[in-house]
């Protein structure tokens, strides 16, 4: 295997596994920048994966090749609906953020599998009709050496995720909306005192989080697993949270952390073709992403500076 082929294999696999993590890490960033802890990202991803897989199977005869893209948006919309539950519980009813998110994580798999059985009479959907597949980036894939590695036969939603990370950084740090969203997560009372609608921005953060997390789940179902079952989302939401913390609640930092986790996940997929990995027992490569998740959560959660009012209950002044 020549160097270009090897590097392309590493890059393409890394981007494939990192894409849902990028979407979901961005989801967590928006929610927590508004002051709402969203540990329910795992549950939101489950609902996004389930809904997109069902949508893909049922709508492919009508939508054809555009089905995965529309299915990804549909998964995002379902993620919003699920995020509304978390927003109501934490913002309006002042429930503990961790407990509310945990309830989402417990409820989503059971609900999704129950609905899958109702629709397909079994615990999984079976193969979806159309996956994302890979493609070339026009013009860029012709660049010598770099083109075949970075821009040829790559999962296209990966570049959508990278673009969204850059856009999210601009929105959070260079726009009025982002300034107000961050102010609500840092000092909601001070934000209220200058006329900012704290509830509106908290809801905005959580609903944007639901949309991006649902799309992250949809990518898992339509690009990696090719179906939906009880094990389709296996800790991806928690990895995304670790990426968000590792990236210090910054969209670009979260993106790089997600790429790191994507690389660690891709190692087991590449072990059969890369000689250096063949000597490592496959089980170690399979558990590596989860070990890294624990290490980062333990090692960085106390050192990274989270939004000042993250997780605090906000009560509007009379």
Give your account of this protein's structure.
- By secondary structure, the chain is mainly α.
- The protein has a single domain, classed as ABC transporter involved in vitamin B12 uptake, BtuC (Orthogonal Bundle).
- It has 13 helices and no strands.
- The chain has helices at residues 3-33, 41-63, 67-92, 97-120, 146-150, 156-174, 176-186, 188-193, 198-225, 236-246, 251-270, 275-278, 282-300.
- The longest helix has 31 residues, at 3-33.
- 48% of the residues are buried.
Summarize the structure.
With 318 residues, the protein is mainly alpha-helical. It has 13 helices and no strands.
CATH C-level class: Mainly Alpha
Kindly state the mean pLDDT as a whole number? Answer: 92
**Unreliable residue runs:** none
Number of strands: 0
What count of helical segments does DSSP give? 13
- Helix-residue proportion: over 70%
What distance separates the N and C termini? Answer: 69 Å
Shape: globular
CATH topology: ABC transporter involved in vitamin B12 uptake, BtuC
- Structural class of the secondary elements? mainly alpha
CATH architecture designation: Orthogonal Bundle
Helix/strand order, N-terminal first: HHHHHHHHHHHHH
User: Main beta sheet: strand number and arrangement?
Assistant: none
Computed over alpha carbons, the radius of gyration is 20 Å
What fraction strand?
A: under 5%
What's the structural domain tally? 1
């Amino acid at each position: 295997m020549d160097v270009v082929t090897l590097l392309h294999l590493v890059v393409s696999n890394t981007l494939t596994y990192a894409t849902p993590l990028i979407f979901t890490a961005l989801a967590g960033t928006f929610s927590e920048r508004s002051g709402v802890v969203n540990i329910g990202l795992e549950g939101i991803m489950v609902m996004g994966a389930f809904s997109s897989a069902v949508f893909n199977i049922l709508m492919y005869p009508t939508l054809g090749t555009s089905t995965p893209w529309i299915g990804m948006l549909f998964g995002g919309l379902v993620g919003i609906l699920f995020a509304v539950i978390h927003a109501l519980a934490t913002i309006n009813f002042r429930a503990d953020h961790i407990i509310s998110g945990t309830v989402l994580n417990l409820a989503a798999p059971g609900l999704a599998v129950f609905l899958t059985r109702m629709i397909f009479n079994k615990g999984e959907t079976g193969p979806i009709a159309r996956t994302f597949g890979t493609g070339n980036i026009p013009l860029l894939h012709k660049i010598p050496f770099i083109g075949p590695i970075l821009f040829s036969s790559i999962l296209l939603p990966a570049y959508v995720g990278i673009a969204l990370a850059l856009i999210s950084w601009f929105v959070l740090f260079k726009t009025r909306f982002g300034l107000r969203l961050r102010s609500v997560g840092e000092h909601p009372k001070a934000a209220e005192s200058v006329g900012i609608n704290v509830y509106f921005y908290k809801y905005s953060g959580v609903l944007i989080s639901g949309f991006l997390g649902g799309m992250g789940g949809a990518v898992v179902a339509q690009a990696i697993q090719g179906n939906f079952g009880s094990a389709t989302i296996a800790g991806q939401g928690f990895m995304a949270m670790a990426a968000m913390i590792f990236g210090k609640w910054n969209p670009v930092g979260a993106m790089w952390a997600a790429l790191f986790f994507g690389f660690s996940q891709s190692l087991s997929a590449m072990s059969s073709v890369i000689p250096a990995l063949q000597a490592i027992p496959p089980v170690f490569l399979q558990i590596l992403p989860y070990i890294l998740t624990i290490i980062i959560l333990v090692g960085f959660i106390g050192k990274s500076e989270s939004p000042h009012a993250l997780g605090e209950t906000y009560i509007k002044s009379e």
